[in-house]
């Protein structure tokens, strides 16, 4: 699952510890560089659902406001929200360096967060889904689209895995001139 760049995932105004724990576990499993919260309810930090102990292996940043949020230089903030003007996730090219932010369990991303977003994507569903599930879908789509996988076959079933990459001999850009 190696790809160039990095990604993070976070939630604004999350209140349920089970959702934060599930999101952190998925982030750890998909290879996130860090997780974050913005203006989270203190009850969300009582996470007991994470059997992978992601909090021990994955940096977590907890910002009390949007203004306090500090992302790495050149990191693109990608909002995940069910808005008409948002880009459908299957049609989105993920930035090499990205932080994805989801809205709370019962609500939407705030106008302040949306104003900071470089992009806003939506998962093409008929209605909003669980925040931890939405995060897992976004991370899967990133890994699937930026990772090195065999193309999907034209018929049902699976394709054989790609062979390991072999480096050729060095090339000179000036050779042959």
Automatic annotation (TrEMBL):
One of its GO terms (molecular function) is RNA binding. Residues 152-177 are annotated as: Disordered. One of its GO terms (biological process) is RNA processing. Residues 8-140 form the tRNA/rRNA methyltransferase SpoU type domain. Keywords: Methyltransferase, Transferase. Coiled coil: none annotated. InterPro entries: Alpha/beta_knot_MTases, rRNA_Methyltransferase, SpoU_MeTrfase, tRNA_m1G_MTases_N. It comes from the Bacteria. SUPFAM superfamilies: alpha/beta knot (SSF75217). Signal peptide: none annotated. This is SpoU rRNA methylase family protein. It comes from Dichotomicrobium thermohalophilum. The lineage of its organism: Bacteria, Pseudomonadati, Pseudomonadota, Alphaproteobacteria, Hyphomicrobiales.
């Amino acid at each position: 699952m190696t790809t160039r760049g990095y990604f993070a995932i976070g939630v604004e105004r999350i209140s349920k510890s089970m959702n934060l724990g599930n999101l952190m576990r998925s982030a750890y499993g998909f290879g996130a560089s860090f997780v974050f919260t913005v203006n989270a309810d203190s009850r969300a930090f009582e996470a007991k659902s994470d059997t992978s102990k992601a909090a021990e292996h994955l940096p977590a940043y907890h910002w009390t406001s949007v203004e306090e949020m500090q992302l790495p230089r050149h990191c693109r903030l990608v909002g995940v929200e069910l808005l008409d003007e948002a880009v459908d996730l299957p049609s989105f090219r993920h930035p090499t360096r990205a932080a994805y932010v989801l809205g709370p369990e019962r609500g939407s991303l705030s106008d302040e967060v949306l104003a900071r977003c470089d992009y806003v994507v939506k998962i093409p569903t008929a209605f909003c889904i669980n925040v931890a599930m939405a995060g897992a879908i976004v991370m899967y789509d990133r890994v699937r689209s930026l990772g090195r996988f065999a193309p999907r076959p034209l018929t049902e079933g699976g394709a054989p895995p790609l062979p390991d990459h072999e480096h050729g001999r060095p090339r000179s850009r000036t050779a042959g001139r």
